[in-house]
Amino acid sequence: MPTAAFPPKAALISLATSLPPNVFLQKDVLAAAWEVFGSRLPQFETLSSIFSNTGIIKRHGVKPFDWYLERRGWPERTAAFLEGADALFVDAAEKALASAQLSGNDIDTVVTVCSTGIATPSLEARVAGRLGFRSDISRVPVFGLGCGGGVSGLSIAARLAQARPGTNVLLVAIELCSLALRLDELTKANIVATSLFGDGAAAMILRAGDGGGTQIENSGEHLWPGTLDIMGWNVDPEGFGVIFQRTIPDFVTANFSPAVAQILANMGLTMADIDRFICHPGGARVINALETTLALHQGALDHERQVIADCGNMSAPTVLFVLERARNAGLPPRSLLTALGPGFTASCVTLRHAA
Known about the structure:
The protein is built from 12 helices and 13 strands. The protein is an alpha/beta fold. The chain is globular, with a radius of gyration of 20 Å.
């Protein structure tokens, strides 16, 4: 009996990113944090060093700087999320469509990854008219992946493209982390979040069968048991409140490399088969930890440091900003995208690139 042919792999057709218009210099955020927290949090003077250790120079937000200096509840945060997310979604998607020489009418499936706001109807439905999506488009909204969402979302989108060769799958990863800034939470976790997070979106178009030179080769994940307290959201009447219960760089140094090695082994690969690691950069200390655990020379994750400096940690789309820079610089034959997110989970995707 003849064996069935393997379905073609999904290929990366286009990739685009988008940032909101309001720019926040890290030095200005620190000065505002002193005003807000300095007199109410005795250990803030010690914690304030976090701002200079992140590697961040500037970040972007969907609201003007002063908006964040007043206490906000769910209604105001949600209104800001819907307005800001709609605009970023459209901008990133239009750029990806233009780069692929497609229109919204050509998209068969849209995967929306977001964990920083609640929208029902979901974001892709809200912007469907503006982008010209067909009435029979398949919609796949994904919530809860956090910082791992860029890589896990790519894995989901690639499998959907591979399942229906020739169709166009649009992935949009969009996070408005700034809207979770809390003036009421006098905790180290909240100060860390205030020092790190910004807003942004990335969009990709994938197609299997007749795509471009970069294929999504394989994917895998690792979920560590007993790690629900590492990262996530608390939900209360004010909105989302960040959970950071453990030191993530230390966890990465101790646990990430064996997990990646096992994921690669499941693909029939080893670390030596990877020409370039493209990582979600949680911050400068996380980047250092990644270089250590992956046995890379210090400074190898150069695009990661550039994205953190220019944009801060935008959660899910951040790794796709890194991929954009690596792609523009020229991808090697095989790259590994990695990200860590709530669960606590490591997500990996291998890319094969033909020059």
